[in-house]
Design goal:
This protein has 119 residues and is of the alpha+beta class. It has a domain of 81 residues: Irregular (Rhinovirus 14, subunit 4), CATH 4.10.80.400. It has a 3-stranded mixed β-sheet, with no helix packed on it. The protein starts with 25 loop residues before the first strand and ends with a helix. The structure holds zinc ion.
């Protein structure tokens, strides 16, 4: 004879959930992006402002764009530009030096001139 199964419902009484500890939940929180796009979502804040969203982030748009708010990219680009200019200056100086050296090596001594004349 199979053993008879018995179910006990509400056998364990759960402790009461604490009240008034949760923040207010807004079902219609407006999330507005700097690009002008806005979304409606649930949040404990009535309104959220963001600088980048899935409408304008390069990962989603596939277009190359710098996402930068503190001017770090500009600062980096400035540094790169300064470094490039310095490199060009050094290169120009070296070329000038080489040119001078070549000119001085082209100047023939009296001994060389005499040798050429004798030939
Ligand atoms: Zn956006």
């Amino acid at each position: 004879m199979p053993k008879k199964l018995t179910f006990f419902t509400n056998a364990v009484k759960l402790p009461l959930v604490k009240t008034d500890i949760h923040p207010k939940y807004y079902q219609d929180c407006k999330i507005s992006c700097a690009c002008g796009y806005s979304y409606i979502s649930g949040s404990t804040l009535p309104e959220i402002k963001v600088e980048v969203c899935s409408n304008c982030h390069p990962f989603y748009t596939g277009k190359e764009k710098f996402v930068d708010t503190e001017g770090r990219v500009e600062r980096y680009q400035r540094k790169v530009e300064v470094a490039r200019k310095a490199k060009e200056e050094i290169k120009a100086k070296v070329e000038k030096k080489q040119e001078k050296a070549q000119i001085s090596s082209n100047v023939k001594s009296l001994k060389d001139l005499l040798r050429e004349v004798q030939r």
